[in-house]
């Protein structure tokens, strides 16, 4: 097998994004594994692989990968939200809620706030 170049890794990363969009998470994982082996510090590739693991129902691998992303980027709201979805799917609701709330605190997107159960029935603003 020929040696992989940085350009090849970029191409593989972009192809993995396309495979994930086409609902082929296992294909995306196969492309991302050598990228991450060559560039273990690449958080974007790790986040993409974590999403692929989640979609492939490889929840433990997804949890580990999201955890690595959060070690490096503790303020990454999306990673907290995605980890929460992973934990929720793994029937660990208390742990999931903690990460949903961290995601909502970091980025008050409506879907993050709703998942965090911060929405109350009383006195909010309208608009």
Automatic annotation (TrEMBL):
> Which key words tag this protein in UniProt?
TPR repeat
Q: Which InterPro entries match?
A: TPR-like_helical_dom_sf (IPR011990), TPR_rpt (IPR019734)
Organism listed in the record: Streptomyces chattanoogensis
Q: Which SUPFAM superfamilies match?
A: TPR-like
Q: What is this protein called?
A: Tetratricopeptide repeat protein
Q: Where are the TPR repeats?
A: 77-110
